[in-house]
Structures are given as C-alpha cells and as structure tokens.
Specification:
Layout: H1 3-7, H2 13-40, H3 44-66, H4 77-92, H5 98-120, H6 126-144, E1 155-156, H7 172-195, H8 197-207, H9 209-214, H10 219-245, E2 247-248, H11 255-268, H12 273-293, H13 297-311, H14 315-327
Antiparallel strand pairs: 1-2
Helix pairs in contact: 2-7, 2-12, 3-7, 3-10, 3-11, 3-12, 4-5, 4-10, 5-10, 7-8, 8-10, 11-12, 12-13
C-alpha cells in the first residue's frame, strides 16, 4: 500500500504547494513590514509585529497536533510559559544567550510533554481536552507560586537575550527579523514533518484511527511523538515573547491563552500550517483594531469568529479557496 493510498493524500500535491506559496507570500509581507513602519515613523509597530510572529510560531506548532493529529490540547500555553521562564531563570544565573535559552526551554517542554502526553493520550475526546487543561493549570499555579521570580506579579528582565555573545537583539528591527527567521525555519521543519511518512501516518490516525491501528501503526507512539514536537516548538514562541516584552508572568500559560491559540488555528484553517500563521495574524490584528475602537472588543471578535465558523468552517483558508473557486 502506497503512502498516498494509506492516508488518502493522492491528488493533493498541488493543494500542498499552493499552501507553501501562501506561506512564502506571508513571509515576503513580513519581511517588508519594517521598512513600511520606518516610513510611517511608528517604531512601536515593530514590537506588535514581533508579537504576531511569536504567536504565529505557537499557532503553527499547535496546528501540528490539532490539525494533523486531531488532538485538541487546551493546556498548550504551558509551553509558552516554559519558554518565557527559561529566559528568566537562565538570565538570573547570568546566561543570556538565546540559543541556550531555546535549548533549555525545549528540553523542559519535551520532558513535560512526554510525561503529560503519555497520560493524556490514554484518553480521547473531551477527556483528553480536560486532562490537558488540568496539566496546563498545574503548570500555571506552579509558576504562580515561584516568589523568587515574582509569583503572580511576574518578573522583569534586565536585558534582552544575546546572540552568540553579541548584543544584536537589542535593536527591535534585528529582533523582528531574527523572529521571522525562526518562523520560517520552523515552518520548513513542520512542512517536512507533515510531508514525511510520520506526518502521513499522523494524518491517517486523524482520519481513521482504527484502520491505521489494524494495518500496523500504533497510534500512541506517533501521537506522543507529535505531542512532544509540538510542545518543543511552542516553547520557542515563549522565548521570543519574553524578550519582546522583557517581562514574564504566569499569564503566558493561562488557559485563556491556550484558548486563544486554538482560536487562531480555527480562524486560519485547521490542518494548514500557512493557515495557522494567517490565523495568528488575523486574530492579533483584529484584537489591536477592535481594542482601539471599543473596550468591548471581545464581543465583536466573538461575533466575527461565529460568522467565520458558520460561513467558512475551514477558516480563512477555506474562504480564500471559495473566492478563487467562484472566479473560475
């Protein structure tokens, strides 16, 4: 049995290449953003752009298990917190190199995801959602209790991380492009994972778990591996967010933040890596725009999300495809 027949992906290469093209367009627009900001003479927008890129990384990492593995994790923001606190803890010991901080964040996240995933994946459906939420809240309250790092009040960072001993990331523009480079590299990695045999088996498990198990693919092993990979990638976003704000707090890992990540994935289009990136962009831009217009912006954001789900269940990606189809 071929890989295409195994997972039902025959005839989809063009769709996959189209999504890669969408991602390349998004990356090009991201790259052009700083010159536009400089022309507008509003440097604060660079910080907003960096925040968007960080959440795009987190949404894409979540989509790896939500969109391709049908695992709805409601505690995924815990890995944002692990990334953020890796920066704070290592900085307090004089370790400011961002590469070491990312490695530490990924190591802690891998261990947490391995243990909690091994337990959570013994459940399915709403039980899986609730147990991941429980583990996420356990991590949240653990960091709330760390008085040495500010507890519930958070912890201010004395400086941004360095890059191989050089203070290059002090510049907001350089930091923005470094984050963009991380997003592009992680997108390439996720794309390779999805296109690999591992990714196709994961997608097959999403479509028909029983059939995949019957032909010799153990669901637990593949799903746990994907869960760990997703947690590690999400922690990278936490490292970026800590440096962007130069502040960390348990709020990074609250269940509300996990819900926001799920909204980004749904808004962009579940099961499309480029859609997750677009969903993060759309969600955060809507938040900024509606927040500037009214203090009740969440109400209008909720209405928009309901309308999107009703009229385009596949999110922005599906809406774009519908528009293209209507023009032919």
């Amino acid at each position: 049995m071929t890989d295409a027949a195994l997972t039902g992906t025959a005839g989809r290469p063009s769709a996959m290449s189209a999504r890669v093209q969408v991602a390349l367009v998004l990356f090009a627009l991201f790259a052009l953003f700083p010159p536009v900001v400089i022309a507008l003479d509003d440097p604060f927008l660079i910080l907003i752009g960096t925040r968007i890129l960080a959440y795009a990384i987190a949404a894409m990492a979540l989509d790896l298990i939500l969109g391709f593995g049908a695992m709805v994790s409601f505690g995924h923001a815990a890995y944002l917190g692990f990334g953020a606190y890796a920066v704070a803890v290592l900085s307090s010991f004089g370790i400011h190199d961002i590469a070491l901080q990312i490695l530490a964040a990924m190591a802690v996240s891998a261990l947490f995801a391995l243990v909690t995933g091994a337990i959570s994946l013994r459940t399915r459906g709403v039980y899986f959602i609730m147990i991941t939420l429980a583990f996420g809240q356990m991590a949240f309250f653990f960091f709330t209790s760390l008085s040495a790092y500010g507890g519930d009040d958070g912890y201010a960072l004395s400086q941004r991380s360095t890059l191989f001993g050089m203070d290059l990331l002090r510049s907001n523009t350089v930091f923005y492009y470094a984050t963009l480079g991380l997003l592009m590299g992680l997108f390439a990695l996720c794309h390779l994972i999805v296109r690999s045999r591992f990714g196709r088996v994961l997608t097959g498990l999403r479509e028909n778990r029983t059939r995949m198990q019957a032909i010799g693919f153990p669901p637990f092993r593949y799903q746990l591996t994907a869960f760990v990979i997703s947690g590690c990638l999400t922690s990278v976003a936490g490292v970026v967010l800590a440096n962007q704000a130069q502040f960390v707090s348990p709020a990074f890992m609250s269940w509300h933040r996990s819900g926001e990540l799920i909204v980004m994935v749904v808004l962009g289009g579940i099961g499309t890596l480029s859609g997750a990136i677009g969903g993060a962009v759309a969600a955060l831009l809507l938040e900024e725009f509606l927040g500037a217009v009214t203090e009740h912006w969440r109400l209008y954001f909720g209405i928009f999300l309901v309308l999107m789900v009703l009229f385009s269940p596949r999110g922005i990606t599906g809406l774009v495809q519908q528009i293209k189809g209507s023009r032919r």
